[in-house]
Amino acid sequence: MANWIDYLSLVVTISLLTALVYGGLIAAKAISSAVQSTKASLETKGVNISRSGVSVKTNKRYEREDYLDATQRGFIKAMKASSAGHQAGRERAEGQSEREGSLKGNHGRTRRAHVVEK
């Protein structure tokens, strides 16, 4: 036969489980409303998010020349990045002598000459 402690344990356990489920529902509603408000604010800025993807409204129309310019810029950046001994965006500093430039080893690291004084 069960005594009063068993009944009290059952009530406390059921109460905790009910509180966890209720808290989960509240959290799910809060997250859902936050997502909806974010979607609404993005839609006012011209970004539409759906299950099929994202679409962005722009006021500017790009012409063929704009696309060609962007493609050429990307191509030039890729060529600079692929050149041996060059890293994208890094060029020889002004005032750097040819000797300092020739001391550059692999990956742009500088080899240091060891000087022994007698």
Describe the protein's architecture and organization:
Helix content is 55%, strand content 7%. The chain contains three helices and two strands. It has a two-stranded antiparallel sheet with strand order 1-2. Strand 1 (47-50) and strand 2 form a beta hairpin. The radius of gyration is 33 Å and the shape is elongated. The mean pLDDT is 78.
Describe the structure in brief.
The protein is mainly alpha-helical.
Which key terms come to mind for this protein?
single chain, 118 residues, mainly alpha, two-stranded antiparallel sheet, 55% helix, 7% strand
Number of strands: 2
Rough outline: elongated
Q: Tell me the strand percentage band.
A: 5-15%
Total count of helical runs of at least 4 residues: 3
What is the first-to-last residue Cα distance? Answer: 99 Å
Largest β sheet strand count, sense and barrel closure: 2 strands, antiparallel
Contiguous runs where pLDDT drops below 50 for at least 5 residues:
none
Oligomer: single chain
Helix content: 55-70%
Going across the biggest sheet, name each strand in turn: 1-2
Q: What's the mean pLDDT score? A: 78
The SS-based structural class is: mainly alpha
